[in-house]
């Protein structure tokens, strides 16, 4: 089941259609036995334990355990203890992009950690901090008549993401980053991501990145797809649209200038790209932001 399909099982005060679904501890049992795929998902166990299946492999999550999985992972909740208290959060790409803008919470190598170490163990203090953010998010989603419900949901998701990213950075400081790179595919993925973050604004073609890594474009595409569930072009495009969103927040930067700085052939090409990714034109996106700031 995808996020969209799961949303139909829960009351409207748990989700915003096509954006976010938050399953609180009282409703978590309804996930048992469900096969979940095609969704970006965070799962957090505050108390008790549960048996989880990720891409056919069995894992046990217990007190203060957390995982963040990408869309290509298939998950299934099997057994759980009677004292289980757990949360599950789903977000779409568009919602996360809108909430986080140009931010990328957490260290770069977190992408590889998600592949090799999908379940993290936090301290009680860290867990309490994250659960506090989820409670704020839950209360806001549940307030269906709040005039700023959309804006507050985005704000609290952003706050949750930044607190999570800060925790991940503290773990990175205490760990040997190279220890997570267990093979050549990991090495290719990590270095591809570094190249993208540095060059996405001026280099849109996969061949540039493949040449820099001394491999073929076909091989790069296969490795990145296997490791992240996304094509290299999708990852490059995501970075471009995040930067475009950030630039559109500044009214002094014209759409034509954004198109030029992001190396599109012309403004029309940029507008077509942006609308395909975000379902609205750059002008509509900018006007929507201005309206939110002035209200």
Characterization of this structure:
Helix 4 (124-142) packs antiparallel against helix 5. The protein is an alpha+beta fold. The two termini are 38 Å apart. The radius of gyration is 20 Å and the shape is globular. It has helices spanning 3-7, 93-100, 110-116, 124-142, 149-173, 184-199, 206-212, 217-228, 232-248, 255-261, 267-278, 282-294; strands spanning 15-16, 20-23, 35-36, 40-47, 50-54, 57-61, 65-69, 75-80, 85-91, 119-121. Mean pLDDT is 85; it is low at 176-181. The protein folds into 2 domains: 3-173, Sandwich (Jelly Rolls); 183-294, Homeodomain-like (Arc Repressor Mutant, subunit A). A 6-stranded antiparallel beta sheet has the order 1-2-9-4-7-10.
What are the salient characteristics of this protein?
single chain; 295 residues; alpha+beta; Jelly Rolls; Arc Repressor Mutant, subunit A; 6-stranded antiparallel β-sheet; 4-stranded antiparallel β-sheet; 10 strands
Set down the secondary structure blueprint.
Elements lengths: L2 H5 L7 E2 L3 E4 L11 E2 L3 E8 L2 E5 L2 E5 L3 E5 L5 E6 L4 E7 L1 H8 L9 H7 L2 E3 L2 H19 L6 H25 L10 H16 L6 H7 L4 H12 L3 H17 L6 H7 L5 H12 L3 H13 L1
Antiparallel strand pairs: 1-2, 2-9, 3-8, 4-7, 4-9, 5-6, 5-8, 7-10
Helix pairs in contact: 2-5, 4-5, 6-8, 7-8, 10-11
Please tell me the total number of domains. Answer: 2
Quote the distance from N terminus to C terminus.
Answer: 38 Å
**Stretches with pLDDT under 50, minimum 5 residues:** 176-181
Name of the CATH class of the largest domain: Mainly Beta
Shape, principal axes of CA atoms:
globular
Order of strands, widest sheet: 1-2-9-4-7-10
Approximately how much helix is present in the residues? 40-55%
Number of strands: 10
